[in-house]
Amino acid sequence: MPTAATPDEVDYVSGRTRLFGIVGDPIVQVRSPEMFTAAFRRRGMEAVLVPLHVLPADFDACLDGIMRLRNLDGLIFTIPYKLRATKLASTIGPQGQLVGAVNALTRDGNGWKAEMFDGLGCVEALRKRGIALQGRRLMLLGAGGAGSAIAVALAHERPAFMRLHDVDRSRADALAGKVRAVSPQTNVEVAEPAIDDIDVLLNATPTGMLDDARLPFAVSALPQRLIVFDAIVKPERTPLIALAESCGCTTVYGREMMRGQIERMVQFFTHA
């Protein structure tokens, strides 16, 4: 029975509520439902973002059904679907076209428009910390959907050097070509991780997510001068971030990247 302390209804969802979803496997690590729903409410929108756990084998069938919902206005895609989600779009925005992956989908007339915001969020998070990238030496781990978006956005900042590493060498090679196309003056190499000659280390792999205690590459200490970013949002203090902080490095959290892209994504969803 409801009591005075537990009312029998809430004021943030009703039959008029517009739905947004975030699709991934796993899904428990995401912070988007809390952060986006709060952003919607700040704008006076009657809307919520809900987590949708979809297995890879069920992706096509599930998304075909989900996208038929008439009160669904948009979707966000996380691991491992940022590349696969491109085929759901009628049109793809400029960032998504360049990267070849998307993380947001919204209704656009009679179809669905997609775009990629991860890279923009990463650069914005670094900018808000006063970290300039022009002329710096960077190493990026991971060349999947998020990693590709981050690399392309970083390239627009004109770094002097970028080392790329991915377990799939061909994927890293393809991403290196995109970086060179955006910033021909940036020296780009695909190689094993090495930190002695870099200024900024960025992790865009899922290694270290949830209960994974591994580091994204074999390392026992980091130079104090290093700036370390991890795109993972849960846990907020990943094994890489914990190591970096213990070594006195400047650290930038995945949650900061999420904050950096929320406003842009809400505008995308609302066509503002």
Describe the structure.
This protein is α/β, with parallel strands linked by helices and 272 residues long. It has 2 domains: 18-116 and 261-270, Rossmann fold (3-Layer(aba) Sandwich); 119-257, NAD(P)-binding Rossmann-like Domain (Rossmann fold, 3-Layer(aba) Sandwich), CATH 3.40.50.720. It is built from 8 helices and 12 strands. It has helices at 32-42, 59-66, 94-99, 118-128, 145-155, 169-182, 239-246, 254-270; strands spanning 18-24, 47-53, 72-77, 91-92, 104-108, 111-115, 137-141, 161-165, 187-190, 200-203, 227-230, 250-252. The strands form 2 sheets. A 6-stranded mixed beta sheet has the order 2-1-3-5-6-4. A 6-stranded parallel beta sheet has the order 9-8-7-10-11-12, with helices on both faces. Strand 5 (104-108) and strand 6 form a beta hairpin. Helix 4 crosses helix 5 (145-155) and helix 4 crosses helix 8. The longest helix has 17 residues, at 254-270. The termini are far apart. The mean pLDDT is 95.
**Form type:** globular
> What are the segments in which pLDDT stays under 50 over at least 5 consecutive residues?
none
The level 1 CATH classification of the largest domain is Alpha Beta
Strand order of the largest sheet: 2-1-3-5-6-4
Instruction: Give me the CATH fold name of the largest domain.
Output: Rossmann fold
> Span between N and C termini?
43 Å
H/E topology pattern: EHEHEEHEEHEHEHEEEHEH
Number of domains: 2
Tally the beta strands: 12
Q: Biggest sheet, in brief?
A: 6 strands, mixed
Strand content: 15-25%
In the CATH hierarchy, what is the superfamily of the largest domain?
Answer: NAD(P)-binding Rossmann-like Domain
CATH architecture of the largest domain: 3-Layer(aba) Sandwich
State the oligomer: single chain
Helical proportion, percent range: 25-40%
Rg over CA atoms, rounded to whole Å, is: 19 Å
Query: How many helices?
Result: 8
